[in-house]
Amino acid sequence: MSAFEIAEMETSEFVQWQSFLELKTGMWLPEARKSFLLASLNRHMREMGIENYQNFYSMLNTGRVSSLDWSKIVDSLTVHETCFYRDETSLKLVSNYCRNKVQKGFRHESENAQQIHLWSVGCSTGEESYSLAIEMDKLSFSLSGSHGQKFYYGVTGIDVSYPSLAIAREGIYDNKKLETISQTTKNHYFEPLDNGFLQVKEFVRDRTCFIQGNILELENKNESSYDVIYCQNVMIYFRQEKKEAILKSLIKKLKPRGLLVLGHGELGNFETHDLIKVDNKNCLAFIKNENYKTDTKEKFSKQIKFSSESKYNKQNKYNKQKNLSRMELS
Ligand SMILES: C[S@@+](CC[C@H](N)C(=O)[O-])C[C@H]1O[C@@H](n2cnc3c(N)ncnc32)[C@H](O)[C@@H]1O
């Protein structure tokens, strides 16, 4: 076999790697991604002079690789694919939600500046966070005529991958990466650099920050809470019980009546009273129920399926919630 040939892997061995990776990273590697795993393992094995999967496995399993190598390996097994304006419909939903929230704030507390804090979870190389920031800047511009009232926004991106975050912080992208952005937006929000690349302008970067973190360990991360949590194409890499745990911590970080946006079909078969589904067939989004109580750990697991309420009560409550979420987003 040549040095660049990728060796086959027995099914039993693949299952061993699947369990190992889930234990160490939380991510579940489906069978469909086996070739991705093999290509990545082979690249590391060549670099580290390791002869076969079993030797590599026992090295990792017994902690005989440095933490730097380990983080490189995990990073190469993670999908970082992203782009600007990846889901325009969801971005529009966020924008409408924020517009309504800010305008309501202007009406009720006219002397106070309005603030919106958005969280881009699994932000990868930053395109999603900057798309949100650009939408917020456009919103701020369109609201600026309202009697001098101020609107401030901030976007925080979080990702487990250090190399992705380094790219996100610089905000420098190949022109090809900006194909999904209109020319007017490109001109307004990006600075052409000498090397043909473009950089997100400073006034947008100033409103955006990036932090390293694992969404499976959010409980210990920071105390902030957010008006909007945007988490797309991340939960697909986790099995149902992990998704539910992630969702639970995202809900905790959301302000009352805050907006949670997920990717289509990312949640699986899951329901909770803590979230009210937004009535929009093109987006998977929820408003946090204002009756949510943080101290009800047990309650969460009990609520996964709607419990023993009478049919009448359920329907009544559902209609009321649906109307509320419509008002928020119309
Ligand atoms: C496919 S990208 C999605 C990027 C962006 N959200 C989008 O939709 O375009 C998934 C990102 O989730 C990050 N990720 C995976 N597991 C994570 C974890 N446990 N904690 C934080 N980020 C994670 C990966 O590093 C990767 O950058």
**What is the helix fraction of residues, given as a range?**
40-55%
Number of strand segments = 10
- Count of helical regions: 12
Task: State the major sheet.
Answer: 7 strands, mixed
Give the C-alpha Rg: 22 Å
Query: How would you sum up the global shape?
Result: globular
- CATH level-four homologous superfamily name of the largest domain: Vaccinia Virus protein VP39
Major sheet strand order:
6-2-1-7-8-10-9
- Bound small-molecule species: S-adenosylmethionine
Give the ordered list of helices and strands: HHHHHEHEHEHEEHEEHEEEHH
Strand content: 15-25%
Overall pLDDT confidence = 85
The top level CATH class name of the largest domain: Alpha Beta
Low-confidence stretches: 295-316
Tally of structural domains: 2
Distance between the termini: 62 Å
Structural class: alpha/beta
CATH architecture classification name of the largest domain: 3-Layer(aba) Sandwich
Summarize the structure in words.
The protein is of the alpha/beta class and 330 residues long. It folds into two domains: 11-76, Chemotaxis Receptor Methyltransferase Cher, domain 1 (Orthogonal Bundle); 88-303, Rossmann fold (3-Layer(aba) Sandwich). It has helices at 11-25, 34-48, 53-61, 67-76, 88-108, 127-143, 162-170, 183-189, 202-205, 240-253, 297-303, 311-329; strands at 114-121, 151-159, 172-173, 190-192, 198-200, 208-212, 226-231, 254-262, 275-277, 284-288. The strands form two sheets. A seven-stranded mixed β-sheet has the order 6-2-1-7-8-10-9. Strands 3-5-4 form a three-stranded antiparallel β-sheet. Helix 5 (88-108) runs parallel beside helix 6. 29% of the residues are buried. S-adenosylmethionine is lined by residues 26-27, 78-82, 86, 122, 124, 128, 159-161, 164, 214-216, 232-234, 237.
